[in-house]
Amino acid sequence: MVDILLKKAGAKDWKEVEFFEKNAACKYYFPINWEDNIKEFLKHSYVYFIVFQEKTVGLISYKFEDDGFVYINGFNVLPEHRRKGIATETLKKIMWIFECQKKFRMVVHPDNKPVIILYMKQNFVIKWWKNNYFGDWQPRLLIETVDNPL
Length: 150
Ligand SMILES: CC(C)(COP(=O)(O)OP(=O)(O)OC[C@H]1O[C@@H](n2cnc3c(N)ncnc32)[C@H](O)[C@@H]1OP(=O)(O)O)[C@@H](O)C(=O)NCCC(=O)NCCS
Prior knowledge:
28% of the residues lie in helices and 33% in strands. The protein is an alpha+beta fold. It has one domain: Gcn5-related N-acetyltransferase (GNAT) (Aminopeptidase), CATH 3.40.630. The longest helix is centred in the middle third of the chain and has 12 residues, at 86-97. The chain binds coenzyme A (COA). Residues 24, 28-29, 75-77, 82-88, 108, 112-115, 117-118 line the site of coenzyme A.
């Protein structure tokens, strides 16, 4: 088991959030940028830095939706710390915090193999596919936890 800590981020941490978002930017991950947008994001979402071996190596964020779901709206790990089980452990921790009372969802690019495999391993299923979901002409999948995946 990988030992990680979650450290709550606040408005004063916007630069650090920007750093992690920029590092994760790719065709599949559209980062949150600009001071105002990041501060707005920090106001409306719960954002946590992921600490591994005393270094901050990524972040995870979520917000609550009206239908009782926890929507994970940001998740990244620095490239040099990937494939160590850090994201898996982070996701498990967040799911454990809500003691399985909550359901989780996330929107992902259908070609984002790492994150799709990661979520499938935690019993998420694909609910739908939408073209141009964020207005970037790229499709997205909505994936959610289910009580009984079989
Ligand atoms: C997605 C992401 C957070 C995964 O972080 P991670 O710490 O490397 O994930 P883990 O080490 O916990 O991987 C768990 C499992 O997912 C799968 N996986 C992860 N990365 C993979 C890759 N590049 N290729 C194939 N499978 C992968 C594997 O099954 C892996 O288990 P294994 O290493 O025992 O085979 C990371 O790749 C990332 O930051 N990507 C860029 C940002 C992003 O796309 N975020 C998703 C938001 S929609």
